[in-house]
Amino acid sequence: MTRTAYVRPYRSADQEALADICIRTADNGGDSTHLYPDPALMPALFAQPYAHLEPELTFVLDDGSGRAVGYVLGTSDTRRFVDAFREIWLPRVTGRFPEPEREPRTLTEAMTALLYRPERMILPELDGHPAHLHIDLLPPWQRKGHGRELMGAFLDALHRKGVRAAHLSMLTANTPARAFYDRLGFRVIDVPDPGPLTYLGRSTEGVETSGWAGSGWRARERAEAAGSKG
After folding, report:
1. 119 Cβ partners below 8 Å, 6+ apart?
2. How is residue 87 annotated by DSSP?
3. 178 phi/psi in degrees, rounded to 5
4. Contact, 19 vs 68, CB < 8 A?
5. Predicted TM-score (pTM) of this structure
6. Predicted pLDDT at 225
7. Contact criterion met (CB below 8 Å) for 97 and 37
8. Burial class of residue 21, CB neighbours in 10 A (0-12, 13-18, 19+)
């Protein structure tokens, strides 16, 4: 039976796949394995804390066999998330990634320093877009409409929680990603001295939820489970 990829809520069994997706897309959309002695640094920064702290806002693209090949994750309240990151998440990873004792001289030290500065996520210009997100897909699953489906699931979940707007940050040099966000209705948020980043935001209203029907994933999983038993 041919299986079809679909968006579903994250579950704890997806932890390893979530980390792998992050690692394989963290170098400006490409594989970051070669950049860090411990590749798990990038998931510890940009993926795992969200799934741990707000799993209800984590969605994955299931390849139809149960394997996650893409994700969208984030928070409904950036300021609250920063507090939880420092109080709950950071103590879980300090043993593996000690805080640098000097000014960063390498890429690994620079990214590790970011781990200890979650307050960098708080910018007054972003207060009108309190939620923020990260979205990544493995290369074979890109440019097939799955990113739009993932984004629809995330923004729809925010809207149902009463959150009116969300933002994201991206490397300005990543022009394919920028084109994707533009198509989804994200617009530039002016931030003083953004460095290599561009900040984008949009309302959670008017979300296209094609491919995502909320509880519809349960019906799909029940049907596939029944088919596997037949």
Report:
1. 82, 86
2. I
3. -60, -40
4. no
5. 0.89
6. 46
7. no
8. buried
